[in-house]
Design goal:
The complex is a heterodimer of chains A (214) and B (503). By secondary structure, chain A is α/β, with parallel strands linked by helices. Chain A has helices at 3-14, 25-28, 42-55, 68-79, 111-114, 168-174, and strands spanning 59-64, 83-86, 101-104, 119-122, 126-128, 133-136, 153-160, 164-165, 181-184, 189-193, 196-199, 206-213. In chain A, the strands form 3 sheets. Chain A has a 6-stranded parallel sheet with strand order 1-12-7-4-2-3, sandwiched between helices. In chain A, strands 8-5-6-9 form a 4-stranded mixed sheet. In chain A, a hairpin with a 2-residue loop joins strand 10 (189-193) and strand 11 (196-199). The longest helix of chain A has 14 residues, at 42-55. In chain B, strand 11 (412-416) and strand 12 (419-423) form a beta hairpin. Helices cover 49% and strands 12% of the residues of chain B. Chain B folds into 4 domains: 1-76 and 322-422, no CATH class; 78-147 and 219-312, 3-Layer(aba) Sandwich (Rossmann fold); 149-217, no CATH class; 450-496, no CATH class. Chain B has helices spanning 22-31, 33-55, 60-76, 78-91, 102-116, 127-131, 134-140, 150-157, 174-188, 200-217, 243-249, 270-281, 314-318, 334-338, 340-345, 356-366, 372-376, 386-390, 397-410, 430-443, 446-460, 472-475, 488-496; strands spanning 95-99, 120-123, 144-147, 220-223, 227-229, 234-239, 253-259, 263-264, 289-294, 304-310, 412-416, 419-423. Chain B has 23 helices and 12 strands. Chain B has a 6-stranded parallel sheet, sandwiched between helices. The two termini of chain B are 28 Å apart. The chains are: A alpha/beta (214), B alpha/beta (503). Chains A and B meet through helix 1, helix 2, helix 6, strand 9 and strand 10 of A and helix 2, helix 3, helix 4, helix 8 and helix 10 of B. Strand 9 (181-184) of chain A pairs antiparallel with strand 9 (289-294) of chain B, so a sheet runs across the interface. The complex binds iron/sulfur cluster.
Chain lengths: 214, 503
């Protein structure tokens, strides 16, 4: 007998006492929890996102679409970045005002090569206001998972209000499970030393979020 | 005992002579002032924070009930959902393996690593791989496993054992961590920076530098998973530091070892657990990083993915009508942080990778109650009920403890290795004596009992008498327990009233 058969057989025998129950799953679980917490307008939701991002030590900037290239140039300059990793489908105009060296994530670039790059700029799939979370799904403006991981400085651009949802239930509804997803809430952190949160371990230690409107 | 363990020491088997029984380990721990201070500080810090994070959600009770129902439903139909997982993961480009026990799981993983030609792997913290002693098994095959979670790194470098589910090095304070880094890092790779102090930020930086080279060159990653979604074949890993992301995305081959109880039926179910897990464990609205992947993705992340589904006592646990609820556990560790016994004795006394209240009900079920330590674990509690109160999937730990005590003392039918066997009563055996020593230990530590009794009266109100709605079928006609079924003192008086009260 294969281990598969053995385990499935054990499961079935273990459940011998359980009465047959063919309730469809949609009705099997009582979901009377909230779809979102509080009823916020679009603007308040964006404010809540900003507040929660800051609470977990992300640096938040807000600007209008026309100001984005200038702001990005400023952020890279302020950081002293010499190079920036750019996902394949990033809007070219975002980098119009900076002459920092652009680096593409090529199929054969090694992690060691990416480790020498100072910053990375990505878009996102959506952001969750209640938890201050950004979700990346590997779309062309975000690139592979590794690019938002290895450089120490991540600038993430969120289009507000359209990319912002209030809650986790709403976020899951909008995401495609088949894609590789990364949920990011603040910069890398640890609670491993005396259960106190310390920012900055392996992921980018500086997370800057640009909320761009219009 | 570290002399008998090379590399990363896991937990020796419960029958191991080096393994102290609960009361012995507890006595030692209670005498260790540093340990107690570290534990008290850490658990009290997180307790207050958790309460705040939970209070933010007005619908916490409904989320908790939904989490419980989702898990119960899944367990009730586990065969079906496991087959669905296999189908979905395979369709997404992954390969599924089934492991009846620890030996088989270790053999599968070692074989998969060997097939890549590599001799080292990077690991994301995973309870399942600790449970099966994977690191030691790989070591025996000439494969080095690097732990990459900061706390696991501290444990590995310190040749120590984990003592907490979420924060395995909770028994260490910052000064001890600095000393371990200074003296041990060079033997494993990049040495600690010159002049390293005990500032947490510096310690984190030292870990970053030490592990960076390992991540960048790693070809094989090993992980567990917090959830596996049956309908989509998606695995979810919740973490803080980014070491998980490194291990899950940079290597070419990823091997995930996952207990069969980690399955949830649908994508939507994550909306419950992604709200309850972070708040219950690190007391955050959301943990810094959560990774979700489905099989392999074109050019993003590992090109080869293996999922090892692990039984190792879980189906035996499932066969126990009262005890099976332990399989709902999402390993948040909230029950450890509120437990008056855990706070005093620390995680090592529980003799397994699962310490605290959840360990006291899980280990004796996964491993059986034949050994002294496993027979005594159900007594390592004052039945105060604080663990039940904070549990995000409402596991009635006191109920299971009482049930397991009865089993130890009275014997009866149990399932071991998939077979129904009749357990002999432990009366008069070493196991019973060990159990009674624990009971006596708890009784003679007034702090444990006082904390417990105070909480018990508070928690009783929260006990539903029976499950509403569809959950009914699960519990049948039996009422949910009035918990504690019997206060600890009463139980003690009734069963051991005469002449056994002191040693
Ligand atoms: S038993 Fe409940 S509280 Fe304890 S670790 Fe498991 S889920 Fe968390």
């Amino acid at each position: 007998m294969s281990s598969r058969e053995r385990i499935l057989g054990r499961v079935r025998r273990a459940l011998a006492d359980v009465p047959q129950d063919d309730t469809p799953y949609a009705q099997a679980v009582c979901r009377d929890y909230l779809r979102q917490h509080g009823d916020h307008g679009a603007e308040e939701t964006v404010d809540l996102l900003a507040e929660n991002l800051v609470d977990y030590r992300a640096v938040v900037h807000r600007c209008a679409a026309g100001e984005l290239p200038g702001l990005i140039a400023h952020l890279l300059g302020e950081r002293g970045s010499q190079s920036v990793l750019v996902p394949p489908g990033l809007d070219e105009s975002w980098l119009a005002d900076t002459d920092v060296k652009r680096v593409a994530d090529l199929p054969d670039s090694t992690p060691h090569e990416l480790d020498r790059i100072d910053s990375v700029i990505t878009g996102c799939a959506l952001a969750v206001a209640e938890t201050g979370t950004l979700v990346l799904d590997g779309s062309p403006d975000q690139g592979r998972r590794r690019i938002s991981l290895i450089p120490d400085h991540h600038i993430c651009v969120v289009r507000v209000p359209e990319q912002v949802v209030s809650s986790i239930p709403q976020a899951l509804e909008r995401l495609a499970p088949g894609r590789p997803l990364t949920w990011i809430s603040g910069p890398s952190a640890t609670s491993d030393i005396e259960l106190d949160r310390v920012e900055g371990v392996h992921g980018p230690r500086t997370l800057e979020v640009v909320l761009v409107s219009g | 005992m570290s002399a008998t363990y090379l590399g990363m020491p896991g937990f020796p088997p419960p029958s191991h002579p080096a393994f102290p029984s609960f009361p012995q380990a507890a006595r030692e721990a209670v005498r260790d002032e540093t340990l107690r201070g570290n534990l008290r500080h850490a658990t009290h810090t997180i307790r207050a924070k958790r309460a705040g994070a939970v209070a933010e959600l007005a619908d916490w009770a409904a989320l908790r009930e939904a989490g419980k129902q989702i898990k119960d439903h899944t367990l009730r139909h586990l065969d079906r959902y496991l087959e669905q997982v296999e189908e979905a993961v395979t369709a997404a480009g992954g390969t599924v393996h089934w492991a009846v026990d620890a030996q088989e799981a270790n053999r599968i993983v070692a074989g998969l690593v060997r097939a890549t030609g590599e001799t080292e792997v990077v690991k994301v913290k995973s309870m399942a791989t600790q449970e099966i002693g994977l690191n030691e098994a790989l070591e025996a095959e000439g494969i080095r496993a690097y732990e990459t979670d900061l706390a696991e790194l501290i444990v590995q470098l310190g040749k120590d054992r984990p003592s907490h589910i979420l924060v395995p090095a909770i028994h260490r304070n910052r000064g001890e961590i600095r000393d371990i880094f200074r003296s041990q890092m060079s033997a494993w790779g990049r040495p600690a920076p010159e002049g390293l102090t005990d500032a947490p930020a510096e310690l984190a930086e030292a870990a970053r530098l030490h592990l960076r080279e390992k991540f960048l060159r790693a070809r094989v990653g090993v992980s567990g998973a917090n959830f596996v979604v049956a309908e989509t074949g998606t695995l979810v890993v919740v973490e803080s530091e980014g070491n998980g992301r490194m291990c899950l995305t940079l290597p070419e081959t990823l091997i995930s070892v996952v207990g069969i109880e980690k399955v949830v039926p649908t994508w939507r179910d994550l909306e419950v657990f992604l709200q309850t897990l972070p708040r219950s464990s690190t007391a955050e609205r959301m943990n810094p990083y959560t990774s979700m992947w489905t099989g392999t993705a074109d050019e993003d992340g590992p090109s080869t993915f293996h999922l090892v589904l692990l039984d190792n006592g879980r189906t035996d646990t499932l066969a126990d009508e009262v005890g099976r609820q332990a399989l709902r556990c999402i390993r948040c560790s909230a029950c450890l942080n509120v437990c008056p016994v855990y706070e005093r004795v620390g995680g090592h006394a529980y003799g397994s990778v699962y310490p605290g209240p959840i360990g006291a009900i899980l280990s004796p079920q996964l491993r059986g109650t034949a050994s002294e330590i496993d027979a005594s674990l159900p007594y390592a509690s004052s039945l105060c009920g604080a663990c039940y109160e904070v549990c995000p999937v409402a596991i009635d730990i006191p109920e299971v403890l009482v049930h397991l005590r009865e089993r130890v003392v009275q014997g009866g039918p149990v399932t071991r290795g998939g077979n129904r066997v009749v357990l002999q009563p432990a009366k008069g055996h070493a196991a019973e004596r060990a159990a009674m020593r624990v009971a006596r230990w708890a009784l003679t530590h007034p702090g444990v009992l006082r904390g417990g009794q105070r909480l018990a009266s508070r928690t009783r109100r929260f006990h539903p008498r029976s499950l509403p709605g569809p959950g009914r079928a699960w519990t049948g006609t039996r009422d949910l327990p009035a918990v504690p079924a019997e206060p600890f003192r009463d139980w003690w008086q009734r069963t051991h009233g005469d002449g056994e009260g002191s040693e």
